[in-house]
Structure formats: structure tokens, C-alpha cells
Write a structure and sequence with these properties.
The protein is an alpha+beta fold. The protein folds into 3 domains: 227 residues, no CATH class; 130 residues, Sandwich (Immunoglobulin-like); 63 residues, Cytochrome Bc1 Complex, Chain D, domain 2, CATH 1.10.760. 20% of the residues lie in helices and 30% in strands. The chain has 9 helices and 21 strands. The strands form 5 sheets. Strands 12, 14, 15, 19 and 21 form a 5-stranded antiparallel sheet that branches. The longest helix has 21 residues. It starts with 8 loop residues before the first helix and ends with a helix.
């Protein structure tokens, strides 16, 4: 799963007018009003993995006004909605983990709104649609009345969903969260963990939630009457729990460089969040690794971590130079207490110096370093195991006939996949992630 966090923007959005304020006050009608200059709609589009693509917004005016904006690599989006009349129908179209995904959401005012499988389910139920194609038609040919119906129905349906799915949501600490407005983090926990473990399918006026691991039906209901749905307690997934400090990978990106001028030397200082550190001398655990267009660059001297303010300073040079986009992967150690909360935007870029030669003689005047994609190798390794290894191997305490266990066998993985294993080939990163998962797994 994976991710750009934009420092400050998302947190500020949470204090703006939020979606579904009527949840605590019934389902009375709200009169749409046009927005003033500077109105912004922002949030995260994710379905277990973040969506990368485009978010589309359409409003309640006549004739209908529409706008759109790109979805960043971590699923975040920021859309100017000046002149649009709420309520607003939101559609996110893109890919997540390589699969095409379209999800819907809804906002009664500018501010923060999330787009995920639960918002998609609730919009479908509130609009009276029967199939995915109906949601497409709704976006294309709605009017003010149809959007107002959704606005009126959503508070009731949200409450019904929280009640009907309470045993499932509680496993992820999400039983009191509003999926439209609750802060969302792409970190395999909370609602993000739920979407990792459960698939939500809409068809023929009904919803079915499936345990991705076992294939068991967890919940089924008629879309318009979620309260009467059936929950199968025996089919509930088992969330991953963090039992020890975990390694994390933070990707750094460059943006805003002058056209045609590659960076050949870079020095940057990053303030690490509390509870996060690096192992400066152990390449096998944590190190600064040139990546993207900077692959092959040299990191020298070793990254230096200050003892007073947790600031990491690193330098890299490249004879060929590198350009906008990913240029470095930083391996960090995140303490147990921070595993569920740390995000990419918690890492602050303090200062950056860019040069178009390796001797730091000619400085580049523009260019910005951004933090993006904070991922945990053991979680990525779990995906590798489930997708590539789980069909032939178990994680039980003993080997079984035809399905040997991989428990305590992390050290064997690299040699097994040196030239492919039974027709399966893994990248170096996938091998490392799989080893991280197997090393941390315990019965």
C-alpha cells in the first residue's frame, strides 16, 4: 500500500466544515448555497491501497458545474471548488495496487472528505442505485433534487452501517468513525486495515462484504436497508497487530526543477518525528538508498543524525544527474507507540541545497524535496506472502504434506528466489519485504 502527505494541509482541512454535520441532528433538508473564492475540498482516496488517478467533483447547480484534480501517489487530493454549489458528488477514478478502481463519496460543504469503499457503499444506498453502472449514471445525469435526497439519507444510513457492522468495525477501532469525515491514514490500520482485509461488492441492489483471506461472506444486506443485514461472526477477518518496533521506508521526491537541468549533488536535512530514528551504519537495516532517477548515485558522507533535534542530514552525488521525481528511499525505525500514527507528512524538510555539478560550485535556485510514501516492509511482505507464497506454503508450526511451512525460514528466502522459485520471480525489494514479514511473524 502506499503515499504523498502534504504537510499541514490535511490537518487544517479537518477543522473546516465537515461532511454530514447533520448526523447528530436528524435528516432535515439543507438548502444549497454557492461557494466563495478559495473554497477547497481535500481528502484521501483509498481502497486498501491509495488510488492514483483523478478525482472528479460535480455540484447541485443548473446547469451542472464540474471540476477535477489529480490524485497524488499517496491518495491525497486537493480540489478548488470555487463557484460550485453543494451538495457535491465526488468520484475518484484510478488504480490501486495495479487494479482499476472507481469510488464515490459525497460532501455537503467544502472542507475534508474521504473517498473509500464505505463512502461508495453509503452513496449507493442513499441514492437508491442497484449496480455500479447506476452510480456512473448518477454522476453523469443527476440534478439538485437527486443530490439532496442523498444528503438527507446519508446520516441515517451511516448510523445503520455503524450499528450493523459494529463487530467488524470494532476489530479495527473504527466502530465510531464516520467514513466520510474521520481522519484517514494509509498505514494498514483503522479503516485502511479493514479495506486490506475485506472486499466490499455492490450488485443487484445488495452489498456483500468478503473476507479476502478466507473468502467467507462477512456481511450481506440490501443497500437501502443496511440495518437488516446479516453479519457472519465466524467469517470475520483477523487484523494484523503490531507487536514490536517496525522498519519503515520513506520515499523522497524532487519537484520544481528547472527544465533540462539535472541535479548532480544534493544536500538536505530532514526532521524526523518523535519515536522515529535511523541506524546510520547498518545498511541491512536502515540506510539512505538512491532510487528512481538517482539510482546509482552515491550517498557520502554517511547520513548524520543530530542528538538534539532529531534532524537527519544527508548528501548524495551523481555524475549523470537526476531529475524531478523519486530520488531516495530512507529506511527508518518506528517505535511501537508510533506505528499507528506516523505518516509521511510528519517528516519535515528543514532545508535543501541543489547543485548542477558534483563539486557544489553551481547552485540550482529552484527545486523542492517532498516526503512521500511511508510504507512498512513487514506489511508489504505480508501481501507478497498472501499473493505469491500462500498457495503453496503455510505459516503453521509444522510442515504439512504438500505445503511446507515458512515459519522461521526467512533466511532461506533470498537463495530460493535467486533465480526464481517454481516459476515465481520476486524483485529484490519484494524479497526483502517477504523476509521482514517472515522474521516478525509469530504464532
Amino acid at each position: 500500500m502506499k503515499f504523498f502527505q502534504h504537510p499541514g494541509r490535511y490537518a487544517l482541512g479537518l477543522v473546516l466544515s465537515l461532511l454530514l454535520a447533520a448526523c447528530s441532528g436528524g435528516s432535515g433538508s439543507t438548502s444549497p448555497t454557492a461557494q466563495t473564492t478559495g473554497a477547497l475540498l481535500e481528502g484521501i482516496a483509498a481502497a486498501g491501497a491509495p488510488l492514483t488517478g483523478t478525482v472528479y467533483i460535480t455540484d447541485s447547480s443548473y446547469p451542472t458545474r464540474k471540476t477535477s484534480a489529480p490524485i497524488n501517489q499517496d491518495g491525497t487530493f486537493f480540489v478548488a471548488v470555487d463557484g460550485l454549489t453543494p451538495p457535491l458528488l465526488v468520484k475518484a477514478v484510478g488504480t490501486a495496487s495495479g487494479s482499476a478502481v472507481t469510488l464515490y463519496s459525497f460532501a455537503t460543504s467544502p472542507g475534508s472528505v474521504q473517498v473509500n469503499p464505505l463512502t461508495d457503499l453509503l452513496v449507493a444506498g442513499a441514492s437508491g442505485t442497484q449496480n455500479r453502472a447506476d452510480l456512473f449514471s448518477l454522476y453523469s445525469s443527476h440534478n439538485r433534487a437527486s443530490l439532496q435526497i442523498i444528503a438527507n439519507q446519508l446520516p441515517r444510513l451511516t448510523a445503520d452501517l455503524q450499528k450493523a457492522l459494529q463487530p467488524l468495525l470494532a476489530l479495527y477501532g473504527a466502530d465510531t468513525l464516520n467514513p466520510f469525515t474521520a481522519a484517514y491514514q494509509v498505514n494498514h490500520q483503522g479503516l485502511d486495515g479493514l479495506f486490506d482485509d475485506a472486499a466490499i461488492n455492490i450488485a443487484n441492489g445488495s452489498v456483500t462484504i468478503i473476507n479476502r483471506s478466507s473468502g467467507a461472506v462477512v456481511f450481506s444486506a440490501v443497500l437501502e436497508n443496511l440495518a437488516s443485514g446479516t453479519l457472519n461472526s465466524a467469517g470475520l477477518p483477523t487484523p494484523v497487530t503490531y507487536t514490536k518496533p517496525g522498519n519503515a521506508r520513506l520515499t523522497l521526491q524532487l519537484t520544481g526543477l528547472p527544465s533540462g537541468i539535472p541535479v548532480k549533488r544534493l544536500k538536505t536535512t530532514i526532521r524526523l518525528p518523535l519515536g522515529v530514528t535511523v541506524d546510520q551504519g547498518t545498511a541491512a537495516v536502515n540506510t539512505a538508498i538512491p532510487s528512481g532517477s538517482a539510482s546509482g548515485a552515491t550517498v557520502y558522507p554517511l547520513p548524520s543524525l543530530s542528538t538534539t533535534n532529531n534532524e537527519l542530514t544527508l548528501e548524495l552525488s551523481s555524475l549523470n544527474g537526476f531529475v524531478d521525481g523519486e530520488f531516495l528511499t530512507l529506511r527508518c525505525i518506528v517505535s511501537y507507540a508510533n506505528l499507528s500514527t506516523v505518516t509521511a507528512d510528519a517528516f519535515k524538510i528543514v532545508k535543501t541545497e541543489l547543485y548542477d555539478d558534483i563539486y557544489k560550485q553551481q547552485k540550482i535556485s529552484t527545486g523542492t524535496v517532498l516526503t512521500s510514501m511511508l510504507v512498512f516492509p513487514d506489511m508489504e511482505g505480508k501481501k507478497v506472502y498472501e499473493g505469491r507464497c500462500g498457495g503453496c506454503h503455510t505459516l503453521s508450526s509444522n510442515d504439512t504434506v504438500g505445503r511446507p511451512s515458512l515459519l522461521n525460514k526467512a533466511a532461506l528466502v533470498r537463495d530460493k528466489f535467486a533465480s526464481g522459485h517454481r516459476g515465481i520471480y520476486l524483485t529484490t525489494q519484494q524479497i526483502e519485504d517477504l523476509q521482514a514479514f517472515l522474521s516478525g511473524y509469530s504464532k
